[in-house]
Amino acid sequence: MSSTSIRTIPTVDPPLAEALAALLVDVVAQGASVGFLNPLAPADARAYWTDVPKPGVTLLVAEQDGRLVGTAQLHAAQQPNARHRAEVCKLMVHPAAQRRGIARALMDELEKAARAAKRTLLVLDTRSGDVSSDLYRSMGYVEVGRIPRYALSSSGQLDSTVFFYKELG
Ligand SMILES: CC(C)(COP(=O)(O)OP(=O)(O)OC[C@H]1O[C@@H](n2cnc3c(N)ncnc32)[C@H](O)[C@@H]1OP(=O)(O)O)[C@@H](O)C(=O)NCCC(=O)NCCS
To answer: Going by CA atoms, what residue is nearest to atom 30 of ligand 1?
Structure first.
């Protein structure tokens, strides 16, 4: 099995925007609920990624044999009363690379980045019933509740979302 390398990305140059866009388009086509609807135009996906890097955002990419296979983000809360908090966002692994532990490795690195930045309370949400909930529970994230009809799916129905938190020790 190829080894996975994970790195932090300070800026998204055009080749990386292309690779991230292809990943996002394929993940959305697989049915993922990550903020976009299928079919996602590659140009829209590229525009999204180009805008991601900004102060307070940690963008990670996972690569195998030099190919992008996954990504995740940590968004540090900017409010003066929330400098201990951050949100985990846009965790995704390419359909051809799933179930090899890449998401877990990305989450481990995000937690390291959060600790280094003294962000000790992590929050996230994910569509109810998705396999991502199993990953988050297995890593110690605590479910706080669900909001029904939270986000539209590509098939046209409104899906509920489950919210989690984790306090880093
Ligand atoms: C959720 C997602 C990121 C998991 O990526 P992955 O690299 O395949 O996950 P891992 O191999 O690290 O698996 C971690 C755990 O997730 C759970 N899991 C992942 N895929 C699963 C599947 N198909 N069926 C059941 N459990 C699954 C398991 O608990 C697994 O642990 P295990 O292998 O010890 O059983 C990936 O399926 C994905 O990109 N989905 C679409 C985007 C998405 O929904 N992202 C979450 C947004 S909040």
So the answer is: 135
CA 105, chain centre distance (Å): 12
The protein residue with its alpha carbon nearest to ligand 1, atom 28, reads 135
Q: Is the CB–ligand 1 distance for residue 135 below 6 Å?
A: yes
- Written as tens digits, the pLDDT of the chain (169 aa) is 689 999 999 999 999 999 999 999 999 999 999 999 999 999 999 999 999 999 999 999 999 999 999 999 999 999 999 999 999 999 999 999 999 999 999 999 999 999 999 999 999 999 999 999 999 999 999 999 999 999 999 999 999 999 999 999 8
Question: Domains plus CATH for the chain?
Answer: 4-120 (3.40.630.30)
Cβ density class 134-166: b for 16+ within 10 Å, e for less: eebeeeebeeeeeeeebbeebeeeebebbbbbb
Q: Is 35's C-beta closer than 6 angstroms to any atom of ligand 1?
A: no
CB of 34 sitting under 6 A from ligand 1:
yes
Q: CB of 62 closer than 6 A to ligand 1? A: no
Q: Is residue 69 classed exposed, middle or buried when 0-12, 13-18 and 19+ CB atoms within 10 A define those classes? A: buried
